[in-house]
Amino acid sequence: MGTSSFFLVERDTYSPDDLLSSVMLASFKSDAMLFYRNEKYFTEENHFKYTTLSIMYNPDTDENKFLMYIDGVKNEGLEFYNNGQFSGLDPSQSLYQVGCIEDVYDNEQLLFSFVYEYLKLNPKQYYWLGGYSWIYSWEDMKKLKSLPYDPDWCYKNPRG
Fold this sequence. Notes:
By secondary structure, the protein is an alpha+beta fold. The chain has helices at 16-29, 108-121, 138-145, and strands at residues 5-10, 33-35, 40-42, 48-56, 65-71, 79-80, 95-101, 126-129. Strands 6-7-1-8 form a four-stranded antiparallel β-sheet, with no helix packed on it. Strands 2, 3, 4 and 5 form a four-stranded antiparallel β-sheet that branches. A hairpin with a 5-residue loop joins strand 3 (40-42) and strand 4. The protein starts with a strand and ends in a 15-residue tail after the last helix.
């Protein structure tokens, strides 16, 4: 079991449809496979809660793959408490944490390619590894991409 991570999106602009579209394009551009069974889960009030998909390099192995959640707008737990403790993030922003990615550990290379392509499509969003006090912006990912690949990239503060 590994650490989970999230994309951080302005509350007023979040759309599950946009997240799903971006995930599909980022998977394609990062040369990863996307497996989606179209299983949707709903709240008791019949509001869309979430769906899941898998992103992987090779479907014949359990290596290099992760599960991702596409969250509904009325899903509990979307609120990201941006209280100024996160390096690289303006504390006045009101954000949702969406697109939960499970099991970051041992999937760092796939994750790097995927996050790079996702933030390239959504440069005003961020990537956050749960439990750490920094975020990754599109500018951070561009900088990391220009350097030799570091397998511990997501466990290091990109600003120092």
